[in-house]
Automatic annotation (TrEMBL):
Full protein name: DNA 5'-3' helicase
Entry keyword annotation includes Transcription: no
EC number(s) given by UniProt: 5.6.2.3
Pfam families: DnaB, DnaB_C
SF4 helicase domain segment(s): 166-261
Listed GO CC annotations: cytosol
Family label: Belongs to the helicase family. DnaB subfamily.
Keywords, comma-separated and alphabetical: ATP-binding, DNA replication, DNA-binding, Helicase, Hydrolase, Isomerase, Nucleotide-binding
GO biological process, one term: DNA replication
InterPro entries, per database record: DNA_heli_DnaB-like_N_sf, DNA_helicase_DnaB-like_C, DNA_helicase_DnaB-like_N, DNA_helicase_N/primase_C, P-loop_NTPase
Catalysed reactions, as listed in the record: ATP + H2O = ADP + phosphate + H(+)
Amino acid sequence: MMEKQHYNQEAEEAVLGAIFQDNSLLQGTIINESHLFFEQHKILFTIMKELHEKELPIEMIQVTEDLERKRQFDAVGGFRFVAHISECVLTTANFKYHEKIVLDHWKVRESIRKSGELQSVLANQKDFEKAQTILQDIEQIQTHSRKESFSLRDAMIEVFEGMQQDTGELTGVDTGYVALNVMTSGLQRQNLMIIAARPSLGKTAFALNVAKNAAKDSVDKSTGEIKKGAIVSIHSLETPTNDLLKRMICAEGNIDASKMR
């Protein structure tokens, strides 16, 4: 009985109804059928996913046909149910809000279920390793907020479209080093670069030069417009701030660093 208190029928219907209005919402949603409470909603969501994967439209006729083919049409409530869901929202503007409501209720239900498992394990089996696993599951439930999978087809389409639009120019931030730009096409978002070498070979100086070059304004060769440099943040665990600044001044002014000490 406790689990039945933790659901929101209107929010689930709003999520499904919004997908009817805009099929592309299904691609970026963070929920799946397991997050829904009502069985007919789970069935409908599964049908929607299958249609999307087949690149078929998610609309009343196609959905009804698939439900009948799978002999699930009566199980969900027939035409009246499908029609109600397809017409229950007038706008998709609140999709993320309703999506979050659905996910929050699922978190509560799953946490209650896992807590029951934990209580049973501690009371009967005394299996503390399994209890630890359940606690980790509960923590993962509470932090669940992103899509767990992606469509390989959609990802490949995005990659190929990017390749077709490639103009040969840097796609990332200019490092100031031609060879490095050729290999990386500039500093890219979400990429981590590690500079490794023996001591006193210029790792810090090189990193500072890359940072300095990235922060510089540049001129777009095709349009002549000035492009603002990147915002750069430098964190050092061993070199004092003043020493870093001196190195940057020397590099910019072609000053012998030994004369700045």
